[in-house]
Amino acid sequence: MTKNDARPMKAIILYDSMSVGGSTDRFIDAVGLELARAGAYVEKARCRQNGDYAFIEEFDVVVMGAPIYYLLVSSQLFGALSRSNLKKYLKGKKVALFVACGSPEPMAQLLYLPQLKMNLENPVILAERVLSPEQLNDPAAASGFVVEIVRSYEKAPKS
């Protein structure tokens, strides 16, 4: 997978989850594996509210998401967006967003994805997904998300 040059897409997956090895972690691993199969160089990192996100500059695509707890995006990711320098380094980046929740998709589209988007400045959103608990464990959901990311990335203007 190239974008008008000889190097592969570089993608970072930024996420948060309350549990290690849970369904969100498994989904992240599946997305990373599918991106790598598509030819991308992939790294993943858990979000921290007070982290330094200067490393984001190195990546072409930022995949970002978290579960919903008590009607809010997981606190570490939301905190990183609102309290650290993450927002600065996401400005104008190509991003793909996901949230995992048990709410019906229309409700999640209305309430939860905007919690991520309101902290982004001029992003190029490649893909958005609301995932049910069942979809987090479905390889087809990860694969479909990655197909959408890759197709949109290939069509997006070069930065």
Note down, in words, how this protein is organized:
The protein is an alpha/beta fold and 159 residues long. It is built from seven helices and six strands; from the N terminus they run βαβββααβααβαα. The chain has helices at 23-37, 75-83, 86-90, 105-111, 113-117, 133-136, 139-155; strands at residues 10-15, 41-46, 61-69, 72-73, 94-100, 124-131. Strands 1, 2, 3, 4, 5 and 6 form a six-stranded mixed beta sheet that branches. The protein is globular.
Concise overview:
The protein is α/β, with parallel strands linked by helices and 159 residues long.
Distance between the termini: 16 Å
Mean pLDDT value: 85
Shape: globular
How many helices in DSSP terms?
7
Which class best fits the helix and strand makeup? alpha/beta
Main β-sheet, in a few words? 6 strands, mixed
Which residue ranges are poorly predicted, with pLDDT under 50 across at least 5 consecutive positions? none
Order of helices and strands: EHEEEHHEHHEHH
Determine the oligomeric state from the structure: single chain
User: What's the total number of strands?
Assistant: 6
Strand content: 15-25%
Radius of gyration equals 14 Å
Instruction: Tell me the helix content.
Output: 25-40%
Secondary structure elements and their pairing?
Elements: E1 10-15, H1 23-37, E2 41-46, E3 61-69, E4 72-73, H2 75-83, H3 86-90, E5 94-100, H4 105-111, H5 113-117, E6 124-131, H6 133-136, H7 139-155
Parallel strand pairs: 1-2, 1-3, 3-5, 5-6
Antiparallel strand pairs: 3-4
Main traits of this protein?
159 residues; alpha/beta; 39% helix; globular
